[in-house]
Amino acid sequence: MLPIFQACQSGDHTEKYTIAFSQCIGNDSWRQTMLEEMKRELSFYPNVQFIYRDAQGNNEKQIAQIRELLTSKIDLLIVSPNEAEPVTPIVDSVFRLKIPVIVTDRKTSSGLYNAYVGADNLAIGKLAGQFISATIHGEGQIGIITGLPGTSASIERKKGLIRGIDSAGTTRIDIEINSDWTKNTAYEQAKKQIDRLKKQDAIFAFNDQMAFGTIQALKEAGINNKKVIGVDALSGTGNGLENIANGTLYASMFYPTGGTEAVRTAISILEQKPYIRENILKTLVINKENASLMILQSNKIKEQQKDIDKRQDLIVRQYKIYNSQKTTLRIVLTSLIITVIFGAISIVVIRNNRKKNKLLNEQNHEILSQQEQIIDMNQQIRNAAEEQRRFFTNVSHEFKTPLTLIMGPLEELEKEKMLSPTGKDHLLYIKRNTQKLQDLIRDLIDIHRIDKSKLKLQAEAIQVNSFIQQIVSNFKPFAKKRGISLSYVNKTSHQEIWVDKHLMEHALSNLLSNAFKYTQKGGGINFVIEENTFGDYFHIKIIDNGAGIAANDMDQIFDTFYQGENHQLGSGIGLAYVKQIVDLHHGQITASSKKGAGSAFTLRLPVGDHHLSTEEKKNGEHTSSNIDYEQIIMPENIDEYESENVSFCSERASTILIVEDHAEIRSFLKEILAPTYNIVFATSYAEALKKLESNYPDLIVSDIMLPDETGIELLKSIKSSLRFNQIPVLLLSAVDTEESKIEGMRHLADGYLTKPFKVDHLRAVITNLIASRLLLKEHYLSINRTNNSQIESQQHTAQDKRFIQNLTLIIEGHLGNKNLSIEDIAKELKLSRVQLYRKTKALLNCSVNDFLLQRRLTKSQHLLLEGLQINEVAEKVGFSSGTYFTAAFRKYFGITPSVYRKDKLKK
Questions:
Q1: Model's pTM, two decimal places?
Q2: Whole-angstrom distance, CA of residue 468 vs CA of residue 489
Q3: In the predicted structure, residue 574 carries a pLDDT above the cut 80
């Protein structure tokens, strides 16, 4: 049964194809005959879908139609170009898309096609010239009616005609009339030149239609016996063969349409069979002597085609009957097979169900056991989390004792009258940062209390307007000092709001503090309170036009300890604390922001007290708020610590560029370094690059965390610059991890210190870095002086000196690149490899590779004295391994690197 079913299923698996034909113009008989021949040949290929487009003699329309055909997922394109040049680009693009292209009648300009089908227009023109010369006995003058200018057929037929008449006698072309292949245009143009046409011994039109138009114009002028020769010789009523037979047309060059040949070539290409690329169709002269025979042959072909069409229709009807019977048989067999299969499946399913039921019972017992284990694990996790919270809170409480012991003596020291101004400044640093620690500890403990529901809401009805105004007024002096506009607008009709005054004041003050942090001088902060449409919720909004929040930070800004890319001196608990306070009030807080345009925080709090339980309402006196606004906005009190951007020590002192966004750190670094060095400050990556250009420091000290970019990015920019890569860079960071240190070293940092750092250690590192660079500088200066003396002694030109200086600078800037090649150096000098070699040999009497090796080994001597390991030195001067470096060093200096270092250190 299965073989029978498979046999019934096996059908016609012939692959389906889609052939598209783009015709330049389809309203003349010759091209209609071409289309009929194509359809007649395609009737033998039912698996081919044929798409036909007529451009009606318009280049733009033909280009647009070909683009539209490409969207139909065609397998092959047959195209008869209207004009060669305009249509060539779109045909070439089809060919490059790996879609086969067959060009008929007229060729494209580029020759990018799979096959060409058409007569040889040169041969047709030549045959016509020879025939005309023979007709007028080799002497006389002729007129020609050409096709559309620019078409390949028109150009080639004219060339062939000239060759034909030149080879046959003294016949010459007296008049040339340009038409567009149509009868009407040829008629109009012939009428204009009728007087000259009368004088011609013969007239050659480049197709029969233009010949008919010329004959009509001659007849109207009374000329009935002029020898007019055309091209095409199509069969059918009113076409060339009939007019030749009745004497209207003197003769015509037979121009086969190639429709049949085009389809046959297309099928061979699609079926990957051998085919001929250039299909040149044969031609001959048709005159009254052989016209009748050609008509008989054409009529016989048409009758045979009609018989083929009838048989084709009969085959189609029989095929439909066959398909219908085959489908019926398939359905019957399929139904029978399905019935048998379902019967077998039912038996198997019943057996499997019994096994599955038994297995499910076992799995249910296992799942119940796993659930009990999960419950136990969850309890263990909760217990562990509680232990962590308890430990965290206990540690926070433990911090209070040492902080108290710090604050107490500080207050006593402040009373001392003998303190120097510097000592008072140091005490102020300690006091402010101790207060910060106390505030952070308080917030941590409150967050823990909220998490454990130990911090109870004590809400009361308070006057909303006076409450908000009091908070805003506390920030007014600071807003005035910073030059920031602070406004308050009350749009609500409600007089009272139920909140815990202490907690809500803390939350709103925290949001205002954040707004001040990120709003620059001249900016604005708006505090707005309004109600929603239904009047059952307050909307309290704090809006600023400051730096804004990055889009990738928005989803996490309320997470505990999260810090966005623009955080300034924060701990990451402020907004988390605010959110928990708002949640205690049964409200919601949302944020919207756009980077560089500002932020808006909205608190949505219920109106009235219906949402509050009895325990959440205040029963007795509640302690008043003791928020220290000076400490809340502490990060903004930077004006007190802002120092000048430059601190000048002396002209001989080294210059240090300090890149640090923390005002107090900048002030502290200035205090400890200004007596010894000239100091230049920058607070961001962008400002650092500007200061680098204008000051050219001897050392750069940079924090890793900067407002716009990281210190690592600044390090990369410096070390990748040919101008600045020799300046040592010392990184300062609060991140004390091996990964961070390795990343800094990997990007060629000269030093890495973590905060808090010891002042003496910092001073020592700075002194060593500057001193080592001074030694290197002196060494290179001595080398340059030697080179300069050599250059002067050799009387080099200024151009030669400039070349040597540029070559030295490029090599010195890329010594650490082990892949540095002569091609790279030549490219930077804008020379060829040969020019570079010849110039280096002429000026320095050595090859480029020798000079590069010399510079690398010379620098390695100084690096060895700085205490670096041999492998590190090898890497810094561009050697692929320590072994290779040691061998090169020994060969050049006659001593190994380790022995060289020992000898130098002994001295």
A1: 0.36
A2: 10
A3: no
